[in-house]
Amino acid sequence: MGGSMIGNYVAGYISKNLRTDARVLGYYKSHDLNQMLDLPTDLVFEIFSHLHPIDLYNLIRTTKSLRGLLLNRHSRRVWKMSFKANVGIPDCPSDVSFPKWVSLLFGPDDCDTCGANYAMPDFAFRARFCESCMMRNYMSKGFCRSTLGEHPNYKLADIWKLLRYSRQWSGYRYSKAGCQIPQYLVTHVIAREKEIKLYLNKIDAGIPDALHEFEQYKESVAKEIEEDMQFVRFCETWCLSIHDAVIRTRGEITDQLADRCFSRLVKEGRDHRDIGLSALQVAVHSGHITRLRGLRYRLMMTNVDRWIRQAHQDRLIAERKKLVESRQAIVDNFYHEFVVQNFKPTHWKSVPDDQKIRDIKLFKKFINDEAPDAAQPPKEMALSEIRQFVEEAIGSRKKSLAFNLLCALKKFPAKGFPDTYSVIELATSVFACTACLSERNIYTKPDVEVRVGWEDVGRKDLCGTCLDWSPRRRNSDMRFSADGARAVVSLLNLLSLDPNATTATELDGLDPRFVCEVCPPRVIDGKKTRLVYKWRECVGHILADKFKSQENVIRRSPRPTLLTEECAKSVRLHEQWLNNSLDSTNCWACTHCAAHFSSNLTREGAKCHVQVTHGIRRPEVHVDYHSQLTTTRPPTIEDDQINVETKPKTEKPKAIEERKKIFENLYTYHCYVMAHIKPTQWMCLAGAEEILDLELFENFIQDQSADVMLHDEDEALAGIRRFVESSMKTCAP
Prior knowledge:
Elements: H1 9-25, H2 41-48, H3 53-60, H4 64-70, H5 76-85, H6 98-106, E1 121-122, E2 127-128, H7 131-137, E3 138-139, H8 156-160, E4 184-185, H9 186-205, H10 210-267, H11 277-286, H12 295-342, H13 354-358, H14 361-367, H15 379-408, E5 430-433, H16 434-438, E6 450-452, H17 454-457, H18 464-469, E7 478-480, H19 482-494, H20 504-510, E8 514-516, E9 522-524, E10 527-533, H21 535-550, E11 560-562, H22 565-579, E12 588-590, H23 603-614, E13 625-627, E14 643-644, H24 654-668, H25 671-676, H26 695-702, H27 713-731
Antiparallel strand pairs: 1-2, 3-4, 5-6, 5-7, 8-10, 8-11, 9-10, 10-14, 12-13
């Protein structure tokens, strides 16, 4: 067929057009050609001269008589008249006979070397080559090695002007651009070198006018090659136009067959939504279907029927999924409306997830209803069910946390808490991640994230430390920390507050700042500075030190010190500047609606939402939008660090320095250490400066009076003995 790319598509396309024209004119009839042989030869030649060249080629292949008649040298006029009558077909070049040229144009696509298929004519070499033979018989300039050697009258570049070249990159297809590198036939290169060698031998022999003849030879051959290459490009363009026409025709036929097949499938009862017209077109094209019957068509329909059934199942699943998602969105809208009306934005992290609300019996029945037009639950009933479920979920969570806390209070020194859920709101109700309290690596996770108060503990998000460092612990729950509670008691004592009555909200209102005097100061710009902690961060710092002690890391216990209000104001200004670094973080949400209940935006995105959706021209932080950043780690850790100078440089009294030297000598060189501690254990002893922190000696050292008396030496040695024994127990494996 004219739309087929099998075989010589040029001959197929021309034959198809000739048959179509014959049917239109009514000339498409079968006759006995043997009667034509009885006519005179001149009359037969006159009849044949009106035929198409492809018809003459087909006549050669019919009978021996016609073959002999058309291959006779007297039939040259017939061929010439036939080509002349059919304008557009490349005329026969002078170096090829008419029968050979017609065979090259319209013959089978068989390689002249190996007989393989898919070998269209290469007009530059007047032959057919498949891609394998092209690789063996073609060569480029870079791979040519001249056998003529060096000669004063000849250069290797001269031979390329005397050879026809091909830019064909495939044995079956023609391209507009073609191969960018000219390809030469090896046999042509060898033959041309032999001709050049004859002229060079004449020049070397001193024959008169040999050089002039050689130059004329090169000029004439180069001119002939240039003219021939123009003819080659014309032939390739002609074949390329037929190739494009075949592709267009094939596409039209494929579309027509696919449309007919689509209509037939719909009449058979298939849903048109399950039948992909483009997929049908691909199936028809890849299966080389030319008519809707036969073996090829039946094989294609077997595959088509299989993927139509699969498409039908996928469509039903997709429609069901879309219906379920739309019903889930209705339930989520009920829930979000309830949350916005009954909870502050800061409490959104404490309410149950959307998925848990969907599991309520009323909503689960509505979502999974098989009827496509199931009625949604009434709004009042839905809100009532949501309220009951949320209250039970929050109550269960509070009960679990309170039970965990009250069970640990037996070993906790600060007693007197009421046995109700309100115990969670106390500042001493410190909770931390179970994974953080059980397994820690002090070298990679320096602090513990603590949560205090229901607003903080009730959040359903994950522990920031475990989320960053240990993804396998993402399901860890919160557990009461007695050590954290003791740390809060020590901070409340610094603030002169009652541990049994102070809540986390009240402590947040005071917003104090602390520094650790034990941690080594950092020198920045020649000044000693220390890291500043909020009260929750300070508790996490103290808890982290407990783990360092468990890992046999010898260091002094943290000693938090309260900053003055004037110094704390300076720190808060630094923290306000650090909060601006969260502008590009997706942790901001609107406080007027639940649009960002599940997914947050950047600060600019939240402001834009408030301006566009709620019509507020100048949104305010914590009023119109807020940050839902859940981490409580101090901003002084890692990249964002706040460093303040906690103590001004003052000249220490000379008396204090002298008293310190007394106790350093007493601790370092006293005979007690020499007599009772093995030298191999001296590394376990604390530094000399730590013994100065004992209450026994602290008052004596810090006393400003010059005539203060030294403690009794026996009492001092007893204090040193207790301190050394405590250090040895801490150092024991």
